[in-house]
C-alpha cells in the first residue's frame, strides 16, 4: 500500500491547489509536513511516533525538471519536492508498526483517516 501511494500522482488541479496553499512560504526553503489522524491520542490508543514526517521544497516541483540537486538542500543529489513529501507522509499511515498497533487496539481501518499538516 505504501508503494502504491508513493507511486501515485496528484491531478493538475490538486497540484495547483497545493502550490497555492504553500505560496506564503519561501519557495527556496524546506517545508515540513506531518500527519494527524482521527484515531490517535484517544483514551485507548496513542499514535504518537507511528507516522513519519517529511520535508519538501516547492522550487524542486516548479523548476521545470526532475534533475537534482535539491534547490533547498544542495547536499541532496535528488530533488525533494513537496508532492513527494506529502505522498510519503500519507504512505506512512501503513508503516508496519502503525498498522500492527491499529490492529492490536482494534481500530477499524475504514474509520481511520489522516490529514497532513504544514
Q: Taking strands numbered 1, 2, ... along the chain, how are they ordered across the largest sheet?
A: 2-1-3
Q: What order do the helices and strands follow?
A: HHEEHHHE
Number of strands: 3
Q: Which shape, going by the Cα principal axes?
A: elongated
C-alpha Rg, in Å?
Answer: 16 Å
What does this structure look like?
- The chain is an alpha+beta fold and 118 residues long.
- It has one domain.
- Helices cover 35% and strands 12% of the residues.
- The protein contains 5 helices and 3 strands; from the N terminus they run H-H-E-E-H-H-H-E.
- It has a 3-stranded antiparallel β-sheet, with helices on one face.
- The model has no long low-confidence stretch (mean pLDDT 92).
Q: What is the topological layout?
A:
Elements: H1 2-7, H2 12-22, E1 31-37, E2 54-56, H3 58-62, H4 82-91, H5 96-104, E3 114-117
Antiparallel strand pairs: 1-2, 1-3
Q: What's this, in brief?
A:
The chain is α+β, with helices and mostly antiparallel strands.
List keywords for this structure.
118 residues; alpha+beta; 5 helices
